[in-house]
Structure formats: C-alpha cells, structure tokens
Amino acid sequence: MPKFYITTPVYYVNDVPHIGHTYTTVAADVLARWRRLMKDEVFFLTGTDEHGAKIENKAAEMKLAPQQYSDEIAAKFQKAWQELNVSNDNFLRTTNPAHIRAVGKALQQMHDRGDIYLGKYQGLYCRGCEQYKSERDLVDGLCPDHKVAPEKMSEECYNFKLSKYQERLLALIKKDQIKILPVERKNEIVSFYEKEGLEDVSFSRKNIKWGVPIPWDKSHTTYVWADAFLNYLTGLGWDGKAKKSKIENLKSKMFMWPPTVQLMSKDILRVHTTIWPAMLLALGLPLPKTIFVHGYFKINGQKMSKSLGNVIAPGDLVKKYGTDASRFLVMSAAVFGHDGDISWEKFDDKYNADLANGLGNLVARVSNLIEKNNLELKIKLEVNGHLPLHKKYAALMAEFKFDEALKLLWQRLRQADETLSEKKPWAIKDAKAVEKILQPIAQDILNVAGLLKPFMPAIAEKIIAQFSAGQIKKGENLFPRI
Ligand SMILES: [Zn+2]
C-alpha cells in the first residue's frame, strides 16, 4: 500500500485560529481524504507550537501560567478542526512530555556529532520586552509595544552548524529531492542559497525559561524552531534516537517517515527548506519529499489584522455556512499556491451561486422529478477511476489544483442543469421518456458526489445515500440560501 504522510505546521499559540490556519489545515484534510479514497496508507498530522518568549509574555499578560495559556489556545485549535470535520490522525502539542524528551535526545545527538557548538547570538534586543526581536517583529524599525529601536546585543548560545549543509541541500533542492512547489518558490529558495547562503543559526536562548532545556547545559532552552520542527517526527511517535534502519523495526507510526507532503504558507518556507532539512541530515533521517507553499488571503484587498478588525475565524465560517460549505468556500477561494482575496460578500455570492442555486438546487430538482414520476433508476456510484471525469480530477489533485478540481465538477453540474432546461422533463407525460433524460443526469450527480467526498464529506455522503437508493426521494434542502 503506498504511504502518504501529510503535515501542516504546528501553529503558534500566540494567536487563535484564523482563516490562514484554516486554509492550510482544510487543504491537508482534502488531500488526506483523497489519498484514503485512493487506498493509500495515510497519516495526517497537525498540532500546536507552544514554547518561547512570546508565549511566556502572552501568558503573563493574561495572568496565566504558560502551560495553562497553551492549553486554552490548543483547545481552540482542536475545536476549530473538529467543527470543520478535519480528519487528522494526531494532534501534536510541543509541550507533550514525549515530544520534549525526544527533542532533548535529538539535540544531544547533534551536539555529540559536533553539529552544535557554543557560540554567540547577536540580535536586536528590546529592554522593555526583555527579549530579542526579529526584523519581522518590528514596525518601522521599532518595537511595536515600546516604540523604541531595539539595541544590538549579543549573548552566549549554542549554534547549529547550518552552513555545513549548504552544498548538500542546494544540490538536493535543485534535483527536486526535496521538491518545492510551486516552482517559483523553488526558484526563490535556490536563489537564496546561491546569493546569500546558509549561516550557522542559534539553537538556544539563555533567558527564556518556557522551552525545552538543552540537555547538557540547563541554563539554556531550545530555540523554538528547533523544537517545533521535530514535531513532524514526534507526531509519529519518534523517540529522538532512531535512524532510518531502526525506524522500520519500531512499532510506532514511524514507518510512515518521511513526509510525502508538507503544507505551509510562504512566511515559513525558508526555515523549512534550510534549518529543517539540515537537522534531518544531521540526524541521518530521510528528507520530506514535497513542500507545498500556499498563498495568503487578503480580506477585501487588505491584509488581515486584528487592528483592522477583519480577521475571519473558522468558527464564524462554520456558524454562517455550515461545515462542508465552509470547506468548499475556503478551498475554492484562490488558486492553491497563489494569493487570494476574500470577503464575506464573496463567500455569500459563491455560496448562493454554487451551492444553494447550483448543487443544492440541482439535487432537489432531479430527485423531485424522479420521485414524482416514480422512477426506479439503475445507477450506482462509479469509483473505478477509469472514467474521464475521474482521471481529470485525479490529475488536478495530484498537482494540488483544488480550485480547478472543483471547477471541473461544477462544469459537469452545469451541463446537467442545461440538459434539464433544454429537455424540460417536467413537461413530459411519458415516464419512459422522462427516465431517459434523468438517468444520465442522476448518474452524473452521483459521480460528482463521489469526487466531492474529500471537500464536502458529509454532504457528499448524503447525496450518495439519496441517489444510491432504489427509490430516490426528494431530500432536505442541502444549502439554505443566505
Ligand atoms: Zn519592546
């Protein structure tokens, strides 16, 4: 059985789930469900990243212990994915004790091999925050909380010999041994390697308590990235030691290693194509096969931000449109891999056009006509994969073209609609003649429903149950108009 291991990033608990997390997670779920339908052995991992100074500060602000704060936010992510019917096989939290033990062991091994050494961390330090700031944290060069420019400071830290892996990783990326998609993202990364190159990177911090202690020097904690990346391994039950040869003997899910696809947004692509694979090389573990980067959503042409108050939360989507429609709307909102522009108005329009007036209306009209004419159609769900519709759909899914896969199905639904309008079976008295018109349309609806399973699992099953019954009856309204 082919293996298919798919991951989302572990989401940082400094924020509650929003549409960006939703996009990555639902896309991963669509792929996981599709590969399960194709009879692959699938493992789908998501989770939360819970360590670091930001979380320590955020928890303090809310007068909570960091663990308590993390528990609350992690629960929000889990609830969001449940509401969206996400079928992840594990939800890995980086505060999980087994994860923490494995991170310690992994770092110890890298240290023993000479890939981690004592050095200096140089960075921009804000005295108000009592922490280093990355360029990304700053607004016009100033700490957004204290409105002062942070100072250049340095402190002792443990560095990872990232530079050592420059040539090997560049060659692997160029040869698509780690395939980066879309290809323009690969080109960006190759050009980063060629123009800037890899420098050693700090793997520890001294003044941050909320993290995984460095095993040989407890005055340091592990830098969040080094901790977070290893979730992709510990999420399968990895204990921090096993090399490939031992992995296959483990009774854990580690036989699923390496990831077939790692999905993420573009802001974390660079670390995922530099530090992450270098860590795997240092640990002697196989590399992920494909890294797919999707774009960002703008909301009404603006960046999503709390201060603009335009953040869309997954819970709001589900409340308004229901689980399956929300999944559909998110997945059809943009070309996967490119940026998209969304808004509540656009979601409403799409919902009414494609779901209420489209799929929902067609299913209602056709089932109603079949019931009225008392027809017994001989149709059944075709899943052999040899139909042209299946083949086209499978090819699009293999290329991560979710929006086009959906368009393909809606083309078929529109054709069915046109045939109905043309042949007007409701005006025909002869049941045999009506059956001749409705039979192929009902078969198309059934086939489309079969391929909708990854996107709209519950609705697809409803339609399949309705149209597979000997006596097809008009069912409930699938998509009430907004
Ligand atoms: Zn500050």
Mass-distribution shape: elongated
How many domains? The number is 2
Poorly predicted spans: none
The value of Rg in angstroms is 26 Å
Q: What characterizes the major β-sheet? A: 6 strands, parallel
Ligand inventory: zinc ion
Task: Report on this structure.
This protein has helices at residues 19-37, 53-61, 66-83, 97-112, 166-174, 183-195, 224-229, 231-234, 244-247, 269-272, 275-283, 314-321, 323-331, 344-372, 388-398, 402-423, 431-452, 457-468; strands at residues 3-12, 41-49, 90-93, 116-126, 131-133, 151-160, 179-181, 201-202, 204-205, 213-214, 217-222, 261-265, 290-294, 297-299, 340-342. It is of the alpha/beta class. The chain folds into two domains: 3-294, Rossmann fold (3-Layer(aba) Sandwich); 343-468, Isoleucyl-tRNA Synthetase, Domain 1. α1 (19-37) links the parallel β1 and β2. α12 packs across α13 and α14 packs antiparallel against α17. The mean pLDDT is 94.
In brief, what are we looking at here?
Helices cover 46% and strands 16% of the residues. With 482 residues, it is an alpha/beta fold.
Q: Would you spell out the secondary-structure blueprint of this structure?
A:
Layout: E1 3-12, H1 19-37, E2 41-49, H2 53-61, H3 66-83, E3 90-93, H4 97-112, E4 116-126, E5 131-133, E6 151-160, H5 166-174, E7 179-181, H6 183-195, E8 201-202, E9 204-205, E10 213-214, E11 217-222, H7 224-229, H8 231-234, H9 244-247, E12 261-265, H10 269-272, H11 275-283, E13 290-294, E14 297-299, H12 314-321, H13 323-331, E15 340-342, H14 344-372, H15 388-398, H16 402-423, H17 431-452, H18 457-468
Parallel strand pairs: 1-2, 1-12, 2-3, 7-13, 12-13, 14-15
Antiparallel strand pairs: 4-5, 4-6, 6-8, 9-11, 10-11
Zinc ion is lined by residues 126, 128-129, 143, 145-146.
